[in-house]
Amino acid sequence: MAPKAPKFEIKTPKGTRDWSGADMVLRERIFRTIADVFKRHGGITIDTPVFELKEILAGKYGEDSKLIYDLADQGGELCSLRYDLTVPFARYLAMNKDVTQIKRYHIAKVYRRDQPAVKKGRMREFYQCDFDIAGVYDPMIPDAEIIRIINEVFEGLGFQGKYTIKLNSRKILDGLFQVCGVPEPLIRPISSAVDKLDKLPWADVRKEMVDEKGLSPEAADKIGQYVLLKGQRDLLEKLKEDKDLAANASMQAGFADMDLLFTYLEAFGADHTVSFDLSLARGLDYYTGVIYEVVTEGSAPAAPASEENKAKAAKKKGGKPSSADDDRSDDPTLGIGSIAAGGRYDNLVGMFSGKTQVPCVGISFGIDRIFSIISAIQKEKERRNEVDVFVMAFGGGKDFTGLLKERSQVCSRLWDAGIKAELLYKVKPKLQNQFKAAEAGGVPFALILGEDELAQGKAKLKEMGLPEDHPLKEGELISLDNLIEEVKVRLARKEQLDKIATQAEGLRVVDGIKGEVAPKKEEEPKAAADIKAEPKTKEEKEVKLVSALAAQAAE
Amino acid sequence: MAPKAPKFEIKTPKGTRDWSGADMVLRERIFRTIADVFKRHGGITIDTPVFELKEILAGKYGEDSKLIYDLADQGGELCSLRYDLTVPFARYLAMNKDVTQIKRYHIAKVYRRDQPAVKKGRMREFYQCDFDIAGVYDPMIPDAEIIRIINEVFEGLGFQGKYTIKLNSRKILDGLFQVCGVPEPLIRPISSAVDKLDKLPWADVRKEMVDEKGLSPEAADKIGQYVLLKGQRDLLEKLKEDKDLAANASMQAGFADMDLLFTYLEAFGADHTVSFDLSLARGLDYYTGVIYEVVTEGSAPAAPASEENKAKAAKKKGGKPSSADDDRSDDPTLGIGSIAAGGRYDNLVGMFSGKTQVPCVGISFGIDRIFSIISAIQKEKERRNEVDVFVMAFGGGKDFTGLLKERSQVCSRLWDAGIKAELLYKVKPKLQNQFKAAEAGGVPFALILGEDELAQGKAKLKEMGLPEDHPLKEGELISLDNLIEEVKVRLARKEQLDKIATQAEGLRVVDGIKGEVAPKKEEEPKAAADIKAEPKTKEEKEVKLVSALAAQAAE
Lengths: 555, 555
What we know:
Largest interface: A-B, 149 and 148 residues
Binding site for L-histidine (chains A, B): 84-86, 112, 128, 132, 282, 286-287
Oligomer: homodimer
Number of strands of chain A: 16
Largest sheet of chain A: 9 strands, mixed
Catalytic activity (chains A, B): tRNA(His) + L-histidine + ATP = L-histidyl-tRNA(His) + AMP + diphosphate + H(+)
Domain Aminoacyl-transfer RNA synthetases class-II family profile (chains A, B): 15-301
GO molecular function (chains A, B): ATP binding; histidine-tRNA ligase activity; RNA binding
EC number (chains A, B): 6.1.1.21
């Protein structure tokens, strides 16, 4: 069939992209790091379909419902692509009445017909990484563990404390609005206005409340006294002293929650990155208790927003005021936004199941934004593939067969032993081209077969990239009888040396657990310091453990 | 907000399902096993959007195009959900002209608006696991490696040789039809008819060729002499002796390919599960060279098809003849069908890029079918979560605080060390309920905190599920100073003992590499036996390796 040039542009749909090469490797490492944290806390994963019945999504996302992708009506049920992973999870719980308690995580794509902004990491198809704890438990313990998980994820990703978990409670917000005299129907709109305080000055937000939403100036000013407050447990104590607030029932409930939460956060060693922030309101309707949003330096606005910029933004959007959800606003003053967000939603499952409620609390990591931040500062070279050994043939002249059979057989033995290996798909390959291919993949070892060496049952094993003056630069002759063992020992040695080198250089490592590779900062608050801490030198213990294992295995 | 009972049925869309619990754990293990094989061969993964421009998919799937899911026209580009992973890969290669050689794998969902048959593992949303080698190389080397990969995947999944890789070549088929006198326009329809020989007797297929497709009875009979032939290299030698066939140019090219392929398969130790099968034709148009399809015992039809059954099938489908692609036929005589399939497609990329061709060869594993087979025979109990230690409080009476703070702190230390740990979300939990939760998750160790032991800096570490008379049934008191080390040593020991127990019982293990855990059958052809095999006892070498590592680490 003769290829015809297609008449349309070959591209991915708007707001979508392919992931490949170093980007893909980095994204996979981020996923693995996050999933490891989830599993460390007992998380199990579930997988739901990429589309849901249209009715399932209806009435869950307020005015953002217009961003939902529908499938064409080709007969049968009407379906839509999932908009997040939370509503499908609630639907799953409503369908599976035997599942009354679960810690589930879900790393998958969601879809929003939004204005894409590729540089900011805002796409129409993007990944969410969700962890949710569902079930009836004693108050605030799971909520505190979620915040501990947020800390572990960002430490595991190498953020080294450079992030803030903004924390608030819907109960406190609702109480605050009641105390300040906001009429019931205005509570949600006023809440949305408050949520913009991370990118607009108070004067602008006040203006919106009074001029656009119709709130009385007195109520607005009263709100202004509170919503700019930030702190930690001290702020909670301060609020409790305020008689007006302390008299409100919703506020009392919120205070009790936050009291417990701070106590548990301290026990989990997870209180040092939180900021109790009364301006945090979150866009979605379904939150009922604690809410949180994680911001990092890169996600702060570049400059304080002026009225002019705001006007520009409004104009660009066709005169409509910007959306309450900063995740999807195209306000030009917005940085890359929050990198994780979530909260408690106790009534969502009941929207599907009728009477049966399953209270939930969860967190969603904005993986594409996290990826953008890490890839911008990540200096390490990512390996493209994971191959350990490139099997090569050396020889020349008329009689050179290329040793394809022998290369294939050696590769087969390596594969049989679980060792990752490659060969060049050439009958008579040039040595130079084989080295080029190995270098392109970053393969650490070359196993070079030659007629003479093979006749003695030997081959040359050469570590790639050694400096010119290294004693093993030319490689070592090894016996093919011991092929697997010789290769395994060298791979293990190299892995260990690489690890030590990384530690010595103090490189950022987007992998592993907090402090495992990066040297631990002394000033970092030590979790659970008052329950006898383990000895400091981890290396020593690892050696002990390996020795113990070896002794046991040798018995 | 008071929950309202919804007025529609809460379910997933037709032909889709949620994955959770033991099913999900098993599926993840299958994915990991397959991905490990792909990576062992230098595979790297790419990720493409779940939907493509409608035009990209158009004209690629013949009459099956009617099964494509379209997105609703909500303004902007018209898009469709991907139907397979091959066309998006070809589109990717056409877009990225610098990628001229790649071994890519992709494990992701695809979508077909088909009649679902859940028991057979046929869904509208299902996973494909694809591995493709793209690039210009010496002939048949990548093709042979793909077959080696198929073997490694099914051995890794525990099939122990109980599968057959049916093998044929489009060049041989085309030559055969030419020699038998099939007119050019009939070649594709006659090829489709031949492809049904795995579920219909020859008489029925001949009838379809002559009565429905209009082939001459003489040509049909001539085809019948060949297409029932099966064998290995011997069949190839037999065909080469046939003067009619040997005179045909396409046939000669096919013979040359198969000759090389068998030579390379022998070198790769991958020739023992293939069956050169002249009835294999494959449905899709884009194949240009070698084609293959993997069948297993469970996928063979339960009973030979009769005309009556066939009529029933036709009636069920509204009188239309069944589709050429048995993957999607709802013929009641069909088993669960092929479990993997693929071939060489050298012209697909050119359909997008115009002149530039990138020859490709690949394999797609039907993961849902593989899952159905394994889950039907899998006797092992799957762990629901991966937690290592459940941290509990022991105590009673009025003064029992529940030790929530201490449990939280101990958990935090375990998490800091990368150890998976859980606690019950109760302020004052009953010991019984804590054990119940640990048992439900299959957690191997309980760490029990009590006031008295804590006062001495100790806690009880107890392995779960030990028999009544086991000396450690009641657990061991450990010092919290050495908490991490004590736990790590026991986890490592348990892992090693579990491994030995599994080996001793000879259980099927869906994990790891061929022969690593399951005892190796003596009669199994040993790959590359003539290049000095490594010593047999793997355990010995592992011990040596661990000792070497320990010695090195201690230096």
